[in-house]
Each structure stands twice: as C-alpha cells, then as structure tokens.
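Input.
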Amino acid sequence: MRIALDINGIFGKSGLGQHVKLLVKNLALIDKENEYLLYTHFWAKTSQIKAIETPESKNFRFVHHNVPETFLLLADFKFNLGITERFLTGHGVEIYHGTGNIVPKFKKIKTVLTIHHYYPVEGPLTPSGLNWREKFYFRCTDYSIPVADFIITDSASTKSEIIRKFNARENRVAVIYPGPPDAAYRPLEKNQSGKYILFVGPINERKNLPRFLEAYSILVKKGLKHNLFIAGTGKDNYMNLIKKLCSELKIQDRIVFTGKISPQEVVHFYNNAEFLVYPSLYEGFGYPPLEAMACGCPVAASNATSIPEITGDAAVLFDPYNAEEIAQAMENLSKDSDLRQELIKKGFEQVKKFSWEKTAKQTLDVYKKVLGK
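Output.
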C-alpha cells in the first residue's frame, strides 16, 4: 500500500500536533513494508519545511504541496477542482488519511478520516470570534464526513455523535483511542512553595470556565486557601469576559493566568498542583486528565461526552453544568489526602491502558480493510 498521511497538524502545540507526531512515530516502528508519504499542504518557507522531522525508516518520505491551505480547501470543497487528488495521484497514492477532521472528496483514492471532536460551527460550544477561514474549516468537517470511505474517532462518544448526526453506518466508523502522553509527562521532585488548584487547556466556551470559577468562588467563601492556576490562552474577547467574571466574583487576587506556557512548564505545574480540575462541556478526547495522571496529579473532571472513557475510575467526576457539584468535588479533593493518594495510584494504572503501538496497529488494520487487503 502507498499511504498519504496528512501531517499539516504536526506544527501545532495542541493535542492534534502530538497525536500526529506520535502516530507517525509508531506506524514507523510497526510497519516496514508499506510506503508512507508524509503530506503537508500550505504556503511554506524553506525553514518551515526543513524543521519537519520524519522517521528514518526507508518506507517513509516527506511530500510537500506548496499552495495556500485556504485556497486548496476552497478549490477542493467549494469548486470540486480535485487539485489534491491530482497531486497525490502523481505520487501513486492509494489511500489518504486525513488526520485532522478533514478529507477532500476523491474519485479514485480511498480515504480514511480521523475525527478528534465534532460540534457544529453554529453551536453554543464553538469558540466565539471565529473569522471566516476558521468557520469554513469547521464546515469542511461537515463536508468530509459523508464522503470519507472510513472514519476513525478518538472515543465512543464521538462515534455515537457522528452516527446520530450524519446517519453514518456503524461499520464505517471505528473507535481507536490515542496513546498516552509522551514520556516527558512523569513525576518530578515536588516544589512545596504553595498549594494550588490547576486548570490546563485553551480558554474557550466549551471549557466551561464560568461555572468552574463560580464553583471556586463558593469554596473561597468557605475558607479554601488554595489559589487557582489557569494554564492556557484564549481569544482576547473571551479572556476579557473571564477576567471580568473573576472580578465580579471577587476572586481576581486568587487567580493566576499563566498565559502561553511550554510543555516543560506544564509538566512542572502538574507535578506541583494539589489536583487538576477539568470542567469541559465537550471533549472528543481530552489529554490533560491523562497528562496529570502520568505526573501523579489527582484529577476532578466533568462527566460529559468522552471524558469518563478517558478517566475511568481514576478521577472524581461531576456534572459540569452544576457549579455546586463542581465545588463539592473540589472540596472533597482539597480536604481528603487519602482520596488524593488513591487517585494518584489509580491514575498511573489508567495511563497504562493507552498504547500508541495499539493505536498504530489498529490504524494499519483500517488501511488494509479499506483497500481490501
């Protein structure tokens, strides 16, 4: 088989970037026979291209299509010009894996689509302030799902949503869980400079910061001494709303907004936090709970969508729409050291349930199935 892997997302610092890197790495470890074209498609400088790391395996090579990404999406999705398929056909590609929620409609090349999360662009969980390009990217997922030959989802929750929303056949959609966080997420020597509660992730509507902050304010009024560290960034308009809410709740002096931080700094925060709170309203596969567990940090998390699949019994779960329930979960963790120790032990075991080797093997099986191998 000659497989084109869309690795455009590899440049991102988000979960998608890590997913693509680790999937490629592990496919290279298990498959020495099939040919892989690591395909990028954007208007690039030479320095950007040289920065891409590719496996040393002889059956992996890099292919770049030097065109503006938005132009290519418009050409393929709005005008059906087939530019991507013509380019890949010239390289003898038999199957194309869209690793980031999008695949073009092809006539001959078979397609596999990975959906990491799904919510409509007009929905309440969509980040506010999207420009037309960002909205079009969301809609490209809607265009992609009906035309893909096979769909991989990161969770059973997302699979159910895709089947319900698009009336997709169940045998055309498979759940393949991503592997664990990379080895950098591990226990380190603790810095006992002060206790704090931690939130990690982008700051937008689906992360549910308003109810989380309301829950935190309830505990502050009850005498909670822990400060709250919010490790992430968001669009200016939404960040301003969140900071205004902190002032209204009179907790602005207890909140530390870290801004953009490196992966190394995130590991430090996990290791020194009393516990992580993950209050999301929606996740296709949320990495912060597993990252925290790998670092020995207890977790309190939302019981919505895929999150219980990820945490298992290694987290205190709560209804993310109920600030009182969020507050109760946080209070239980802040007061009960035995509970925290129990969750730390369970967390280490939960992380072991995820394997990138298994992810790669199951993905390769999908390629074979789609091509009838």
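The radius of gyration is 21 Å.
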